[in-house]
Design brief:
The chain is α+β, with helices and mostly antiparallel strands.
């Protein structure tokens, strides 16, 4: 069996199930979407729950993923054992009412034995004790002997979580051999030792449980499988634990390099090395998903992990910042499966560095204070740190509670958790009372809660853009007032308004509120509880009092442009469904006077042809001058008409349905629209991108925004033509001519490089040494790139015969190393990959390759002489001679 790397195994698994008709989906974010039951994704099936429950229709009935997960329930054991992790990857293949037990079992066996190459005699399935069907499949179809199939009870092999879908499980265990066992006579599957490792778990969701022990067969059965990628790698690579697999070992070695320690020589150091190895993976992936360290929710989880890692770095003797350096290794090792790590590298490193800097500013002081407190407790005979002291460490010095507990536990102390919690609640209550609103749209804008609930505002802006009404309420950002004056920021609430408040993705109207001698600029309009509408802005002239009768005027031009963009999103959604399919549903939108944005469900980037087809349909609907009609009806009546509702949106008893043409578009919508699609003028998609797994985003322009866009393009085209010394019509030809000229110059440059390299042949041939019957040559040549080094190496092999060659050069200050070995040299022990690995370390680089060919890079040209000497030493060791 080949010891496949972790990245290879991930790809092999996903490719295998893709070949079985599964839709291969990228890992979902660690941040759960519309799931408040967890702070972070903790299992491969967690993001797919809407498909299992039937809330959403899956893009395909067969799906496969490798899902990044974080669990912190056993965080205190991470590092102390070689088993526990907070970050892990879960391989999964899922069926939503499609295949069931036969296929799920057969494919698991095929993947493990045929694809990965595990010895089937070391694999042991388990089934739920009453699941005769699964037992027979394993025995009669797969061919596993009865005595090798284990029937286990409900606790081990039946998955359920309260009432709802549930079912039996089948697990696959791998016998790692006696050296991992406990030595007890009865050691077998189910033993707590490390010999029999569970690598695969298949859940057959076939029942609907009532939570009281009653079960009914589900009409549509599902498959939910999970296999820990790290565990699979342990088995395939035949290593002791997850911290020894290839990607983790690379990270572990980097920690040892920075700390100047060795793994496996000191038990306490090993705990810190393992903890940092795990935690830096977690925080790197959390940062890539937009999570930031904070004192709340998932941000606090991240802060805990990051600061634990930073503290254990101190225990290893690391001084200064080091977490970002380790994160670079995480990114390098995992970017094959998660390219977003490389894309967000700068952001990730910045987040980690800023948090580590913040912690480093206070940790020494905090540790000194904690040491004093421990001394005081020893002197007094106490073993419990007071809650107030623990809170001070948290509040002033940034010590997460579990970090304080960990440090105290190492010294035989504990902490008063209840006292800490009481201090925390007291601070929150103080903050609530002292909080001031700085953002009218923020959740902390509590001044509006003081308004009489009986006050409401009626919206009249569907039919008119001006209205006269009476001021009911005036507020500043902190209190209700009777009067506001010139220059003051305020909110006005009136009895009825033509101003549309920000809702449903449509931006608020702008305009003015006036009366004799007074004017108020409306900068925002917000929907408040109880049907109130707040007009937010600045008094630009005079003053206003409650009870004043005012005239409200919406900016007609601004509203008209917004209406065009909003109506265009309806046409866009209809066109998307026609081109891509009925799975397209709105996942968010934004429409304002200058642009529109539309998020929708779709699981791949749109092709140029698809974008063109969508754009064409929308523009045809605009040219057809379709009438836009709005009807108010009950939700049930609206659904019967086929009108589309926004997924997840809650509606009242009656809804507004906006229809464009007889059958082009029909949607629930409370926004404002054009009277005829021709008012939109024209439509242009300017970008299409992904914003989340399964969600795409289109940004587009209409009417005046589009004309401004084209004017800008024309200016840019004119500037480009001017720079190329031609006109717009001749720009393409000019670029082609310039490219041709560039290719000619590049070809000439390559010839000169080859000539220069050839001239070096005579100089370096004299440096060849005879070692073990092989001509060994290690030499430096000036300003030759990697292609040139390869060409030069080929020529040297021809001249030297059976040979092992290493060439070095440093064009533009970057070191390039290339090694080659003839077949005869390889047969005598030469290995170009190992040779170059040794030499690359001398120039601050790394690399490797095959026995006959390898290349590497480096940062330090001054190390080239040492690299050459190292090459001769390594060659002598490989060939059994003297350098």
């Amino acid at each position: 069996m080949k010891a496949y790397g972790e990245n290879e195994l991930r790809k092999m698994y996903l490719d295998f199930f893709e070949s079985k008709g599964h839709l291969k989906m990228n890992s979902f974010s660690l941040v759960p979407q519309n799931d408040k039951s967890v702070l972070l994704i903790i299992a491969g099936m967690a993001p797919l729950k809407p498909y299992f429950t039937g809330q959403e229709i899956p893009p395909r009935r067969r799906i496969t993923t490798c899902q990044k997960c974080i669990r912190t329930s056993d965080i205190e054991n991470v590092g102390k054992t070689a088993r526990h992790l907070t970050f892990f990857e879960m391989l999964g293949n899922f069926s939503f009412g499609d295949y069931f037990k036969h296929e799920a079992i057969a494919w698991s066996w095929e993947f493990l034995t045929k694809v990965v190459g595990l010895d089937e005699n070391r694999l042991y399935p388990s089934v739920y004790e009453r699941d005769d069907e699964a037992f027979d499949i394993w025995n009669k179809e797969i061919g596993v002997a009865k005595e090798r199939i284990f029937r286990l009870g409900k606790e081990d092999n039946f998955w359920e979580h309260g009432a709802g879908p549930c079912g039996p499980c089948s697990e696959i265990y791998y016998d790692r051999g006696e050296r991992f066992g406990c030595g007890k006579p009865g050691c077998t599957v189910g033993c707590d030792c490390d010999r029999y490792m569970e690598v695969w778990n298949i859940v057959f969701t076939q029942f609907d449980g009532d939570g009281k022990g009653g079960y009914e067969e589900l009409a549509s059965k599902n498959i939910d499988t999970g296999m820990g990628l790290e565990r699979l790698a342990v088995v395939v690579q035949d290593v002791d634990c997850v911290f020894d697999i290839d990607t983790m070992k690379a990270l572990r070695d980097r920690i040892c390099e920075i700390a100047g320690v060795s793994y496996g020589t000191d038990a306490k150091n090993d705990v810190s090395i393992r903890l940092i190895t795990d935690h830096i993976r977690s925080v790197t992936f959390m940062a890539s998903d937009g999570i930031l360290p904070s004192n709340e929710g998932r941000g606090y989880v991240m802060r805990r992990l990051l600061r634990r890692a930073a503290r254990h770095g101190r225990l290893l003797g690391i001084r200064g910042l080091f977490l970002a350096k380790l994160s670079e290794t995480v990114i390098a090792e995992s970017k094959d499966g998660y390219p977003e790590l490389e894309e967000k590298k700068e952001h990730i490193l910045k987040v980690l560095t800023m948090e580590e800097e913040k912690f480093n500013k206070t940790i020494d002081q905090g540790l000194a204070i904690l040491s004093e407190l421990c001394g005081t407790m020893r002197a007094s005979g106490s073993t419990v740190l007071g809650g107030e002291d623990a809170f001070k460490l948290y509040d002033t010095y940034g010590f997460p509670m579990d970090l304080t507990e960990e440090i105290l536990s190492d010294q035989g102390f504990s902490v008063d958790k209840e006292g800490f919690a009481a201090c925390m609640e007291k601070q929150r209550e103080t903050a609530r009372k002292a909080r001031k609103t700085t953002n009218y749209m923020g959740a902390d804008a509590t001044v509006y809660d003081e308004i009489d609930p009986a006050i409401t505002t009626r919206f009249v802006g569907y039919d008119k853009l001006t209205a006269t009404s009476k001021i009911q309420v005036l507020t500043t950002d902190t209190e209700l007032v009777e009067q506001v004056v010139e220059g003051q920021l305020a909110t006005l609430i009136v009895e009825e308004t033509p101003f549309y408040a920000t809702m449903g993705g449509q931006a608020a109207d702008h305009g003015v509120i006036e009366m004799d001698g007074a004017s108020f600029a409306v900068e925002d309009v917000i929907k408040l509880k109880g049907g109130k509408v707040g007009h937010v802005g600045t008094v630009t002239k005079g003053s206003f009092q409650t009870g004043d009768e005012v005239t409200l005027s919406v900016d007609a031009h601004d509203r008209a442009l917004t209406c065009r963009n909003h109506s265009a999103t309806h046409l866009l959604q209809s066109a998307l469904r026609r081109v891509l399919g009925p799975h397209v549903e709105q996942h968010g939108s934004y429409v304002s006077a200058d642009r529109l944005r539309f998020d929708f469900s779709h699981f791949s980037a749109m092709t140029a042809e698809e974008l063109s087809a969508v754009e064409k349909l929308v523009n045809e609907a605009i040219a057809d001058a379709l009438p836009v009609e709005t009807k108010v009806m009950t939700v049930e009546e609206a659904k019967k008409t086929g009108a589309m509702a926004l997924f997840g949106e809650k509606y009242g008893e009656t809804v507004r349905v906006v229809c464009m043409g007889e059958d082009f578009s029909k949607e629930f919508c409370g926004g404002t629209h054009v009277a005829n699609t021709s008012e939109i003028t024209a439509f242009k998609i300017v970008s299409e991108s992904g914003v989340a797994a399964g969600v795409r985003r289109i940004e587009a322009l209409t009417s005046e925004g589009l004309f401004a866009y084209y004017e800008k393009l024309e200016r840019q085209l004119a500037e480009a033509a001017k720079a190329a010394k031609t006109d717009a019509a001749g720009l393409s030809r000019r670029i082609e001519a310039m490219n041709e000229e560039l290719r000619g110059l590049q070809a000439e440059n390559e010839k000169l490089k080859a000539k220069l390299a050839n001239s070096s042949l005579g100089d370096v041939l004299s440096r060849a040494k005879e070692i073990g019957g092989v001509s060994v040559l290690a030499a430096s040549v000036a300003d030759v790139d990697m292609n040139g080094l390869r060409n030069l190496g080929d020529q040297l092999k021809e001249k030297l015969g059976e040979s092992l060659i290493l060439l070095a050069s440093a064009p533009e200050g970057r070191v390039s190393l290339m090694a080659m070995a003839t077949d005869g040299a390889v047969a005598k022990g030469a290995h170009a990959g190992n040779l170059i690995k040794a030499a690359a370390a001398c120039v601050g680089g790394g690399g490797g390759g095959r026995p006959n060919m390898a290349q590497a890079g480096g940062k330090d040209p001054n190390g080239i002489p040492a690299a050459i000497e190292k090459a001769y030493e390594t060659a002598a060791a490989q060939l059994g001679g003297n350098a």
